Here is the input.
Amino acid sequence: MHCVPRTAHLRKIPASALGGLLLALACALALAYAGTATAAGFEWEGVVASGLNPGSIATDAAGRVYVPQRGAGLVYVYDSARNGNRLLGSIGSGRLQDPSAVAVDNRLTIYVADAARDAIVTFGSFITGAEYRGTDGVGGTALGQMRGVSVLATDPEPRLYAGEQGNQRVQAFDPARGALGSLFAFGVSDPPPFGPPAGLTLDSSNRFYVSSGSAGSDVRMFDTRGIFVATVIGPGSAVGQVDGARGLDADPASRLLVADSGNDRVALFDSAAGGFAPLAVFGTSGSGTGQFNNPASLARAPGALLYVADAANSRIVRLRYDDADHDGAIDALDNCPGLPNTDQVNHDGDSAGNACDDDDDGDGLPDAADPCATTNPLRDLNRDGCADPIVRALSPKSRANFRAGRGPARVSGRAQADTVGVARVQVAIVRRSSGRCAWWSSRRGRFVSGSCERPRWVRARGTSRWHLTTARSSYKRGSYSIRARAVQRVTGAVGQAAVPQSRFSVR
Ligand SMILES: [Ca+2]
Ligand SMILES: [Ca+2]
Ligand SMILES: [Ca+2]
Ligand SMILES: [Ca+2]
Here is the structure.
């Protein structure tokens, strides 16, 4: 929408006062919305670690942070933010010389690029001791060989991708083939100018994004086969531009997070569907709070968190991004944006989480009038929002045989009534003999004659497990049937459909 200054607008079209008011209102709304969108940017949470010489960092599904320490032959591992980001330990001692990049796949396998040997070293999950699994690769330009790996990425397959500075390409590996079977590689430097690859990530459609750390270079998109599609973010220092971005990470909404190294800031760009529009930018040059000096790598973690390797400040910084309501769900995918709902629970699977859904179970009854607000019952004859109460496991079972004067002294079963529970269970026992009916009366302690069409319900003891005691001696010859039904708490609904019956005879 195009909003002109209100006064100018009124001066131009004085006759249309109502139209002007409407446009002004619409513009006010648009501005309010823009304000909300800006608020959903980045927030500084703190410095996680300092005194480091970090390479390209990674996180795992549990939120741990992996920081390759260039030159030291180690990858430091920090715990999740929830656990205080404390240093858990390191991996690679004796196996690594110059770890330049790390990636952790969805099976928690750890891959470390060793720039000193042009190889990728594989370790098992950190929680099971990160055991050494092997070293693959050698310097060279053929498939399976590599030069100067500066960044690693994984996809859900899981496959492994390496950005090679020396060969100016991205190479894809399939670890399932053993020995890191190389699948294909594609060059990233054409069209020029483009420096060696530094940032590498894949969106949810498995398209590649590659950036270069060279001043004046852009961010490029390649299709799933590695064919160049377009430059998606151009070089420069204005909002919407990057300058030698060394770190990239696509988020679950396929938006791009960028460590904009030359501009000492981080930025969020919309997805391909959103035209890579700039959504938020954060940071200025320096070494204080909210400042960066050559941010070189970034990695998302659960809880709407983003770790940034602030390289020239020798530190790792934790940011929160796109989470204005601070509930740990990025607002782009938050099922109640603007309302803190950490659990994101959404019973009916619609677009609104329970916290902001007036009808959590989607059964058409608003929560305030729905005693079973989180169940959408299949069978709800009285439309009270709760599944109709049912009785089962009725005993004695049908076709049991009894002798006169020795009938079943105990009738029992189970009952249930949705989440509200059973208030009581009622039982009706009838004897039919020569076309006449007699019903069990607990008050009288015997069968009393009555209409065959009008059951005489008596109350059983218990609820979800219940029983009724009768007198064995009161059973005369005839054919009997027992019915039982449960009465639901809160609304008093009575089990209506499929009331179970047991039929037996006394001879
Ligand atoms: Ca949120
Ligand atoms: Ca929320
Ligand atoms: Ca819902
Ligand atoms: Ca409901």
Notes: The chain has three domains: 1-39, 40-321, 390-506. Residues 17-39 form the longest helix (23 residues). The longest strand covers residues 422-433.
